[in-house]
Write a structure and sequence with these properties.
With 135 residues, the chain is an alpha+beta fold. 17% of the residues lie in helices and 38% in strands. A hairpin with a 6-residue loop joins strand 1 and strand 2.
Length: 135
């Protein structure tokens, strides 16, 4: 295989993966239920929010009864959670989830939803709130 074809294939794969990630995480994952099977044992419990180990960071920790995929969507606007925090520590599916949100502004109010196997969890459907100075 020539180098040009190899780089063309790698470029196409990169674009497809990037677009897929963007589509999945752009909005409040309302359509996630069609991609993943929700489980009753993926409901978060033992939720703790603390300051992170690094300056300007927060740590969000929770557990689930089953091994579930978990991530956090967050942002400065309740209606547009434009950032994603992934659980890189515990792997793709786990019962324990730990998300570190970096580079937070200390006095700003952040809104976040915990996403567990395709279902968003907050306060009766609304995002939870976080202010780094209040932790």
């Amino acid at each position: 295989m020539s180098k040009k074809i190899f780089f063309l294939i790698v470029g196409i794969v990169f674009v497809v993966v990037s677009l897929s990630i963007f589509i999945l995480f752009k909005k409040n994952v309302g359509g996630f239920d069609t991609l993943f099977v929700s489980q009753e044992d993926c409901t978060p419990f033992n939720l703790f929010v603390t300051k992170g180990d690094k300056e300007f960071s927060a740590k969000i920790v929770w557990e689930t009864k089953g091994e579930c995929m978990g991530f956090v969507q967050y942002g400065l606007n309740r209606e547009d959670l434009d950032r994603v925090g992934m659980d890189f520590l515990n792997g793709y599916r786990s019962k324990k989830h730990e998300i570190v949100l970096d580079k937070l502004l200390t006095k700003e109010k952040y809104y976040y939803l915990i996403n567990s196997d395709g279902k968003a969890f907050g306060n009766n459907g609304r995002p939870l709130e976080l202010v780094l100075n209040n932790l």
